[in-house]
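Appendix B. Chain record.
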Amino acid sequence: MHTDQGFHYQHSSWRKLIASCGGIQSMSRKGNCYDNAVMENFFGHLKTEMFHGELFASTEELSVAIDDYIFWYNTQRLQARIKGLTPMEYRSQTLAALAV
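Structure tokens predicted for this chain:
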């Protein structure tokens, strides 16, 4: 789990909770907001495109919605920064070019 260096994320009870679930904590370096910029960008899209105004009846419903969004994001969402392709199309083209 990636977090910033806020006090609540450094507290021993938070670290124990993460460890009890089998998680591993990582933190950005102090004063460096770019350590996790790619994921922060993705989460920004997720929040505005999937969560905005939505209520979920259960954590299971939320989990399914997140899985569906990630699949859609990778296979259908066109992105200008990668030449109007989906992430999967861009990945496939890049791998094909490397194989030549």
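Further analysis of this model is presented in Appendix C.
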